[in-house]
Amino acid sequence: MGQTTTSMLRAVALVGHGAAGKTTLAESLLAAAGEISSRGAVEKGNTVCDFDPQEREFGHSLNAALVGFSWQDAYVHLIDTPGFPDFAGQAISALAAVDTALVVINAQNGIELSTEKMMQLAAARGVCRMIVINKIDADNVDLPALVGEIRERFGRECMLLDLPVKQGAEVVELLGHDSGESDFESVAAAHRALIDQIVEEDEDLLARYLDEGLDPSPDELHVPFEKALRSGHLIPILFVSAKTGAGIPQLLDALAQLAPSPAEGNPPPFYRGEPGGPTEAFQAEPDPEKHVLAHVFKIVSDPFIGKVGVFRVHQGTIRKDSQLFVGDGKRPFKVGHIYRLQGKEYLEAESLLPGDLGAVAKVDEIEFDCVLHDSHDEDHIHLKPLEFPQPMHGLAVTAVRKADEQRLFEILRKLEVEDPCFRIERHATTNETVIRGIGEMHLRAKLTRLAQQYKLELDTAPPQIAYREAITAAAEGHCRHKKQSGGAGQFGEVALRVEPLERGAGFEFVDIVKGGVIPGVFMASVEKGVRQALADGVIAGFAVQDLRVTVHDGKSHPVDGKDIAFQTAGRKATIEAIRAAKPIVLEPVVEIEILAPEAMTGDLTGDLSSKRGHLTGTQPRGPGVMAITGQVPLAELDGYQSRLKSLTAGQGSYSISFSHYAQVPPATQQQLVAEHQVVDEE
Ligand SMILES: Nc1nc2c(ncn2[C@@H]2O[C@H](COP(=O)(O)OP(=O)(O)OP(=O)(O)O)[C@@H](O)[C@H]2O)c(=O)[nH]1
Ligand SMILES: [Mg+2]
C-alpha cells in the first residue's frame, strides 16, 4: 500500500450482545486480511482482542480492543467491544470514535437486549449502522424468520446486502449480482429492492433508472449509498460465519468499498462553549492540513506503560513531535511517541490522520472524554457527552492487609479514570469507601484485576444504606447552658419548636424572638448548633430532614453570653425537641426497571412484592422482552443481581435510580436505634 490518505480510512466498531461472536469475527477479519497467519479462538484464549488474562479466563470481552488491517485500498480501524451490559461503558464510548457500527446478531438467539440498546445508541449519535448476522453455520437457525424479526423491530430500511448460498457455506453479494440461487430468497428480487432503496436518494439517478431500466454503475451508486447510510434510510444486513469464514470476503469488501470514510460519515457532534455559557455546534473537517482536533475515548492504566490515552483524530495531523493542548489547558505537552494499537501491541507511528485511531502514553493531564488540539483557536470545544448507565451497584471495601490502606484509594482512582461507569465514594461519617459499578460482574472484574495486577486484596461488604431521620409531630425543646469555672463564664438559653415538613422539603430555620433576647450574632450560633444536631442525628445516628425549627425565646448575658454557649444550647434544645416529636427513620426507595424474557414476568413481579416493592407497570420492550417497572426500598436489593440471574437463567438485567425517602418498618427502626445506642455507649 502506498501513502495513506484520510479517504482510505475506515473506523468501525463491533457491537452487540455478549457471545454474538464479535471477538471471533475480528479474528476472522484479521486472518482473511493477512494481518495474522491463522484465526485464534475465544475458547483457546488466543485471540488478538481478548488479550487480558481475565478475558481469557472468563471467555468474554471486558474491554474495548483496537486492531487494524488493510483490505484493497482501505485501512480499517476496528474496535471489538464487550457485549455484556455490565461492561457497556466500553461499548458506548467506542461509538464516539467510529463512523460505522457493525451490530453483530447471533443467528441462534436472534435480537437480544444489547442488540436493541446498541442499535438505539448508534442511531442517536449518528453512527452509520450495518447489521451482521453471525453463526450462519450453526444448527437450528432460521435466517428468513430472523430477517423478518429484524425488519419488524428496526424498520424496512434493514435491507439485504448479501445472501447465504449452499446452505450457508458461502455468501452472494447483491449490489453486483442480479440472478442465481440463494438459500432462502430470490437474488433478483433482493438485488432490485436494494437498488431501488439506494436510487431514491438521488432524483436524477432515479429518473434515469426508471426511464432506462438499467442498473446504475457502482460508481454512480456510491454517493447515494453513503447518503442512505448516513440518514438511516438504508441499514444493510450481511451474513457471516466467523467460524467457517463464509461471508467474510464480502464483509471485508463492504468495509473497504461501502463503509463511510471520515468525510462520508455523519459529522461528529462537537460544540463550542465555555462552562455554564451558551454553546454552538462546531463542525470538524477531516482535513489533514487543518488544526488538530482529537477526542480521547478510552484511558488505559497500564502498570508498565503508565496512563495511556486512546483517541480518534477528527481534524489535522498528529505527528510524533507535535505539541498538543489538553482541553482548555494553557500549557501544551510534547507528544513524543504516538502509537497504533493492535490488540495488546503498541506499534509506533509517524503520523495520524483524520479518521485514524491512536494512542499517547504518560500524559497525566489526559482524561477520558477530553479533546486534544494544537491551537488556542480550538479551546472550549467538546464532543456531545455520551450517555452512560448510572453505576448504582455498590460494595464497601477495605484492604485485607493494613499496609495497603494507603495505596487503596490511589489504585482505585486509576480504575475510576479509565471506566466511566465505575465510581469511588468516600463517606466521612461512616468512614466507608464504597465502589460503584453497573452490576455484580462489573465489580467482581475490578476486584480480580486489583488482586492480579496490583496485588491488592480487598474485603467487601454491602455498603451502609443512607438512612435518614424525620419527625411526625410538633414539639418544644429548651436548654439553658451555663458554665461557671474560674474566669469568664458561659451563658446561653434557647427555646425552640420543631414541626414536620413534607417529604423532600429539607430544613427551614426561623427566628421569631422578640426584643433581641438573643442578639443577632448569637442567633447565628444557635443555628449552627441546630444544624449540628440535625447532621449528627438523634435517635439512630442519621441526618434529620424535612422539618422546621423555630426559635421563639431565649436569654443572653452581657458578659458571659458566648458563641459556644449558644451553639451548645441550640444543639441540646433541638435534640430534646426531636426526641419528643415522635421521630422516625427513613430509607431510600428506588425506581427499578427490570428487562427480562416475557415468560418470567409473573415470577419477577411476585418476587418484587415479597421485597416490599410495588409494581408500577409491565410493558413489552421488543420481541419476547418485558420491561417491569416499580419502586422498591434500596435495602431490599442487596444481592439482587445474583437473584435475577438465577430467576431468569442469566437473561434478565435491571437498572435503578433514586426515587424518594419513606418510613422504615417498625422492626427495622427498633434495630437501627438499638445499634446506634450500642455505638454510643462504646
Ligand atoms: N458456530 C459458531 N460459533 C461461533 C461463531 N462465531 C463465534 N462463535 C462462538 O460463539 C462464542 C462467543 O464468541 P465471542 O467471539 O467470544 O463473542 P463476543 O461477541 O465477542 O462476546 P462478548 O465478548 O461477551 O461480547 C464462542 O464460543 C465462539 O466460538 C460462528 O460463526 N459460528
Ligand atoms: Mg468479545
Description of the structure:
Helix content is 28%, strand content 31%. It folds into 5 domains: 6-257, P-loop containing nucleotide triphosphate hydrolases (Rossmann fold, 3-Layer(aba) Sandwich); 293-383, Translation factors (Elongation Factor Tu (Ef-tu), domain 3), CATH 2.40.30.10; 394-464, Elongation Factor G (Translational Gtpase), domain 3 (Alpha-Beta Plaits, 2-Layer Sandwich), CATH 3.30.70; 469-581, 2-Layer Sandwich (Ribosomal Protein S5, domain 2); 588-667, Alpha-Beta Plaits. A hairpin with a 4-residue loop joins β33 and β34 (625-633). The model has no long low-confidence stretch (mean pLDDT 92). α12 (520-536) packs across α13 (563-580). It is α+β, with helices and mostly antiparallel strands and 682 residues long. Bound molecules: guanosine-5'-triphosphate (GTP) and magnesium ion. Guanosine-5'-triphosphate is lined by residues 18-24, 41-43, 60-61, 82-84, 134-135, 137-138, 241-243. The site of guanosine-5'-triphosphate (GTP) has 22 residues, from α1. It comes from Candidatus Accumulibacter appositus. Residues 605-625 are annotated as: Disordered.
Characteristics of this structure?
elongated; single chain; six-stranded antiparallel beta sheet; seven-stranded mixed beta sheet; Elongation Factor Tu (Ef-tu), domain 3; 682 residues; Alpha-Beta Plaits; binds guanosine-5'-triphosphate; 16 helices; Rossmann fold; alpha+beta; binds magnesium ion; 5 domains
